[in-house]
Write a structure and sequence with these properties.
This protein has 262 residues and is low in regular secondary structure. The chain has 2 domains: 83 residues, Ribonuclease Inhibitor (Leucine-rich repeat, LRR (right-handed beta-alpha superhelix), Alpha-Beta Horseshoe); 159 residues, Alpha-Beta Horseshoe (Leucine-rich repeat, LRR (right-handed beta-alpha superhelix)). Helices cover 13% and strands 12% of the residues. It contains 5 helices and 11 strands. The protein has a 9-stranded parallel β-sheet. Strand 10 and strand 11 form a beta hairpin. It is elongated and about 65 Å long. It starts with 12 loop residues before the first helix and ends in a 6-residue tail after the last strand.
Length: 262
């Protein structure tokens, strides 16, 4: 375990603990941490937000399960390789940010986080997602961009609340048919993958879908435009952006833009 440095170092331990207990927020960004600070674990039920962005943490201890009221776990920009299996005990978690680490897999116990609303793990080394991700029925955002994913699990279709799915810069070839169950999905981003086709009923089934981004994929313009439900999708997209093509949206009034291999 490590000790706190940087700005926090000028405070006494008791002052830090008092402040963190009063606010419920432990903010240790850019604190030059190389190991997880023991004193944070002493707070147990008091911590609601833990932010250790931009440090050099390689491991998250099993004892993090003591923080039973934790709602926001922000671990971005470290060198973390894994989450402890008992992360599933953090039943109050609503947000996990693991962007820009070295995570190679997620534990099955992730599926126990039934209150989780936002999961971002872009810029890691994932080759697959656990099937248990389908248990995250309250998940609104899933960001798995910049990994090495070859596919998304069939269980993704059970994330019924999902509104935004980002999976840019992977090696995904096709989506599971169950993605058509995501009736609240508004945005689907799959830039720079190997997608040749998407489920034929996607546009018809996902009636709230307003944005699909498929830059640098083999799927053709004709394929997309010929899908059932394309006209309705296009009408939603135009309505949202007030008939102007936003720079973040690949689908224009003529279909897929020049970023797609036709």
């Amino acid at each position: 375990m490590g000790c706190v440095s940087s700005k926090a170092a000028i405070e006494s331990k008791s002052d830090r603990l008092s402040r963190w207990t009063a606010t419920g927020i432990v903010a240790l960004r850019d604190a030059k941490l190389k190991s997880f600070p023991d004193e944070v674990l002493e707070l147990e039920r008091s911590v609601r937000t833990l932010d250790v962005t931009h440090n050099k943490l390689a491991d998250i201890p099993e004892e993090i399960s003591k923080l039973v009221n934790l709602q926001r776990l922000i671990l971005a920009d470290n060198v973390i390789e894994r989450l402890p299996s008992n992360v599933g005990k953090l039943q109050s978690l609503k947000l996990i940010n693991l962007d820009q680490n070295k995570v190679t897999f997620l534990p099955d116990e992730l599926g126990q986080l039934v209150r989780l609303e936002r999961l971002s793990i872009s810029g890691n080394q994932l080759t697959a997602l656990p099937e248990t991700i389908g248990s995250l029925r309250n998940l609104l955002l899933l960001n798995v961009s910049n990994n090495q994913l070859k596919f998304l699990p069939e269980s993704i279709g059970s994330c019924f609340s999902l509104e935004e799915l980002k999976a840019n810069e992977n090696v995904i070839e096709e989506l599971p048919p169950s993605v058509c169950n995501l009736i609240h999905l508004k945005s689907l981003c799959l830039d720079r993958n190997k997608v040749k086709q998407i489920p034929p009923s996607l546009l018809r089934s996902c009636k709230t879908l307003q944005n699909i981004s498929l830059h640098d994929n083999p799927m053709s313009m004709d394929q997309f435009q010929s899908m059932e439900g394309f006209q309705e999708f296009e009408a939603r997209r135009k309505k949202k952006f007030d008939k102007q093509i936003d720079s973040n949206v690949m689908i224009g009034s003529k279909g897929l833009d020049e970023g797609v291999d036709l």
